[in-house]
Design brief:
The protein has one helix and 13 strands. With 191 residues, it is of the alpha+beta class. It has a single domain, classed as minor pseudopilin epsh fold, CATH 3.55.40.
C-alpha cells in the first residue's frame, strides 16, 4: 500500500486566502454602508421635495394645501392634502426615524416623531412663509358658505404649535443623522 502525502496548507496559501477573504468582507461592508447612506439621502430628498412642492402649490394654485408627516407603525410617511383630500402618500424610508428640533429662547428642544404622532405644515398663500406648524395634533377640515360661495378652512387642533420659532431642524436618523433646516419666515430650506 502506498502512503498518502498528508501535508497541510503552507503559510503563503493561508495568507493569500485570508487576504482574499478580507477584501471580500471589507467590500461588502462598504457596499452596505453606501446602501444605508443612500436610503437616508433619499429620505432627505423626499422630505425636501414634498415640502417645496407644498409651498409652490400654495403660492401658485387657488386651493388649500397642507402636508402631514406621520409615523405609522414605525414607518414615516408624508401625506399631501388638497382641500382636505389626500393627493399623495410617500414613504419616507425604511429603518429611519425623524425628529425635529427648534430653538425657543435660549434652549434647544427636540421632539421625536413617535408612533401615531403627526406633524402638519401649511404655508401662507401671500408670503410663502410657514403659516401653521403643528406637532401631535390633528387636522380639522371644514367648508363654510360665505356670500353664496363655499370657503374651505383648515385648522389644526391639539398638539404643540411651533410657529413662533424662527426655524425648525428635521433630523433624519438611520445609521447616520442627516438634517434639513427650514426657515419659517421664508418657508425655504437652508442650502
Amino acid at each position: 500500500m502506498k502512503k498518502m502525502d498528508m501535508k497541510g496548507f503552507s503559510l503563503i496559501e493561508l495568507l493569500v486566502t485570508l487576504a482574499i477573504m478580507l477584501v471580500v468582507i471589507s467590500g461588502s461592508a462598504i457596499l452596505m454602508s453606501t446602501l444605508v447612506n443612500a436610503n437616508e439621502q433619499r429620505a432627505v430628498n423626499s422630505l425636501k421635495s414634498e415640502v417645496e412642492m407644498l409651498r409652490s402649490n400654495t403660492l401658485s394654485i387657488d386651493n388649500s394645501y397642507y402636508i402631514e408627516i406621520t409615523n405609522k407603525e414605525g414607518i414615516i410617511y408624508i401625506n399631501s392634502y388638497k382641500n382636505g383630500d389626500l393627493m399623495d402618500s410617500t414613504k419616507l424610508g425604511s429603518r429611519i426615524s425623524l425628529s425635529i428640533s427648534f430653538t425657543e429662547g435660549d434652549t434647544s428642544t427636540g421632539l421625536a416623531l413617535s408612533k401615531g404622532t403627526s406633524l402638519f405644515i401649511e404655508f401662507d398663500k401671500s408670503k410663502g412663509s410657514v403659516k401653521s406648524l403643528n406637532y401631535g395634533g390633528s387636522a380639522v377640515n371644514s367648508t363654510e358658505d360665505v356670500n353664496g360661495s363655499s370657503v374651505y378652512y383648515i385648522t389644526f387642533t391639539g398638539g404643540t404649535n411651533l410657529i413662533e420659532n424662527s426655524f425648525i431642524n428635521f433630523n433624519i436618523k438611520g445609521r447616520k443623522t442627516k438634517s434639513l433646516l427650514l426657515y419659517l419666515k421664508t418657508g425655504i430650506f437652508k442650502e
